[in-house]
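Re: weekly structure request thread

Next one in the queue (356 aa):
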Amino acid sequence: MIKIFKKFKFVLISFIVLSLGLITISYIPTHKDLIVPAEAYNIQNTYQFAGIDTKDVHVYSVSVYSYYNVTLSQYLFSLLNPYAVISEHNDIVNTSSVYINSSGTVQKNVSLINALIAGYQESGKDISYTFLGNIIHSLYGTANRYFQVGDVINEVEGEKITKDKDVNNVLLEKYGYIQIGDYYYINLELNKPYQFKVLRNGEVIDIEAYCMNYQVDDNLLPILGINYYNYNSINKEETNPKFEIKSPDTYGPSAGLMQSLFIYDALSGEKLTKNLIVAGTGTIDEDGRVGSIGGVQSKLTAAIQAKADVFFCPASNYIEAKERFDKLNYKTKMKLVSVNTLHDCIEYLKENMGGI
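Done, posted below.
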């Protein structure tokens, strides 16, 4: 046995060192986040409308895989993927699976509702809805001491939240703003309590919340650490045609624009997307306005891999998307189109893609 060990001593030691090295790099965090393309998702699988056949409506959302604070081994493997997007990890972002699931679910549900409102209104169909407040979808830093994902804010600093006057509008009006570089921030104070009324699990509760310090360039800026959307409830009895939602397995709000376009094309009967693969990304609000999203380069890549004919992109993400598109343009005939509203998508398809 000793003779065998001596004979293969170098091989055994090399194997042990290599194994320990692989185990080590599988656990060492790099403080990097990673996004890679996933797939295109047919929105036919999300909505059904009474008496309407959607087989000729070909609208797709695109998804990505996101990994946070990846290990050294994950980072090294990502360098072999030409489509991977690597960024610095932000320590104030909660990346636990429980938090990501709850935040993504709230954002998805708001997106599904907003898309219905925008699509019905744009197609001239009847829809009734009620504004409920600002629903919290993301918490940063110490905000989870006071708030929960899914809290619906009804009131802040004694003033009621409305569809046209959200939390930030109220605070900005009361306390003004400060400018740091090219950006403006609400002038909040670190040790001042801010009063909220929120709806949580069917009960209205009072919350006293404090700011935390957030690093902006060389400045420490007091922020509350919450992100939210307008939150609406649809009255199905007063909506025509009737609809059903088959909630997709994806998370987040970025399918909103494509969901609203699918709804419009289905309800209008114009068949703008027949014989096409129309993909895109972007949040949508109840008025059909498009908002920015994360991971746009990876989502564009997923659309190219799905052989999409057109990719609609929020105007606020266009420069970033165009950078990736220019590198991959030789692989696709897909058109990259910047939009600000659902109506922009519809007009582009009418003017450039033909419809029927």
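The domain at 32-96+108-125+241-353 is CATH 3.30.230 (Ribosomal Protein S5; domain 2). The chain has nine helices and 20 strands.
Next request, please.
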